[in-house]
């Protein structure tokens, strides 16, 4: 399958067959890395990594994947360029496109990465925007497939705030690949209705279902995968913490939630997670609200059902597949 020259902005742009191809390629590249087989056939190429939001997994994944493929990288942070400030996105795209073979963007609105793609003249990859997180989806689907040996016919339940990049992207990925998707949260946090209807079209083609429910017991019953994310996204004001904690605590992933799923169910989280008081922010929130965890209990996070670190590792393998497949 030829994906050379393609942008990777949202899974809406890819067919189920193309997504599966990327998962297969990631699995192949992962196996080769484990065996010490070099895949540095992109030597002499360079990629630009634009980060308007900080990252551990995304930055590490792109840098290691590019290095493994034989490429050089340039990290461009908020203090390292005039991106969007003294130089327009359009002009930045045209400059970087003359110097680099590919550009990654992690930041805010989807329109930014779309504009980069419009003018760069080289493949542009979405490392995360407010609306979509497609590289995370490949890592998630690879992790699920590794565990269950399949994707089609499984039930994935996303708990928490399903209005933004993670809820949106999981719904798209599941609908395209034949997994039943459940957004389990209060109605105010349901995904956008227009996107839900778009995904129901995908689901009809793949034979899966999209469900929105506020009933935790019914929503998580018989689930194969329970998924959650932090309740307050990067860049949001501190004032929203109290509201989110109050409204989303009923949708915390607990031992009881996991017991309501299938016995072989797994827990996923894109990380970082507030499962204890081991972070500065976690301690501050704990002191303010008298809590010891947030979206998931430490008991679940540290359980055998938790596959979050397999999932984190797979970010690198799947990002490597995206770059390898799309670079000329």
From TrEMBL:
Annotated GO CC locations: cytoplasm
One MF annotation (Gene Ontology) recorded for this entry: ornithine carbamoyltransferase activity
Subcellular localization, as worded in the UniProt entry: Cytoplasm
A Gene Ontology BP annotation from the UniProt entry: L-arginine biosynthetic process via ornithine
Primary site of residence: cytoplasm
Aspartate/ornithine carbamoyltransferase carbamoyl-P binding domain span: 6-146
PANTHER family given in the database record: ORNITHINE CARBAMOYLTRANSFERASE, ORNITHINE CARBAMOYLTRANSFERASE, MITOCHONDRIAL
Protein name (Swiss-Prot/TrEMBL): Ornithine carbamoyltransferase
Organism this protein belongs to: [Ruminococcus] torques CAG:61
């Amino acid at each position: 399958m030829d994906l050379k020259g393609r942008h990777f902005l949202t899974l809406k742009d890819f067919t189920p067959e193309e997504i599966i191809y990327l998962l297969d390629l990631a699995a192949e590249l992962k196996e080769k890395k484990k065996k010490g087989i070099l895949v540095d056939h992109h030597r002499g190429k360079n990629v630009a990594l634009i980060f308007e939001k900080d990252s551990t997994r995304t930055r590490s994944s792109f840098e290691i994947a590019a290095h493994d493929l034989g490429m050089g990288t340039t990290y461009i942070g908020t203090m390292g360029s005039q991106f969007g400030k003294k130089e327009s996105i359009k002009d930045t795209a045209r400059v970087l496109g003359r110097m680099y073979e590919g550009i990654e963007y992690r930041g805010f609105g989807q329109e930014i990465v779309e504009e980069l793609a419009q003018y760069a003249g080289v493949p542009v990859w979405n490392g995360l925007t407010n609306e979509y997180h497609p590289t995370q989806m490949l890592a998630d689907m690879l992790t699920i497939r590794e565990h269950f040996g399949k994707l089609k016919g499984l039930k994935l339940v996303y708990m928490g705030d399903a209005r933004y990049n993670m809820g949106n992207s999981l719904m798209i990925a599941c609908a395209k690949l034949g997994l039943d998707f459940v957004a389990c949260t209060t109605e105010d946090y349901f995904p956008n209705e227009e996107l839900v209807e778009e995904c129901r079209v995908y689901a009809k083609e793949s034979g899966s279902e999209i469900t929105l429910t506020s009933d935790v017991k019914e929503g998580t019953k018989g689930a194969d995968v329970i998924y959650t994310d932090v309740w307050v996204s990067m860049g949001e004001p501190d004032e929203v913490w109290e509201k989110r904690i109050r409204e989303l605590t009923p949708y915390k992933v607990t031992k009881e939630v996991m017991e309501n799923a299938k016995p072989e169910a797994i827990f996923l989280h894109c990380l970082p997670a507030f499962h204890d008081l081991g972070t500065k922010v976690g301690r501050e929130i704990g002191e303010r609200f008298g809590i010891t965890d947030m979206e998931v209990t430490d008991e679940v996070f540290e359980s055998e059902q938790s596959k979050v670190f397999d999932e984190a590792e797979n970010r690198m393998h799947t990002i490597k597949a995206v770059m390898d497949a799309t670079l000329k």
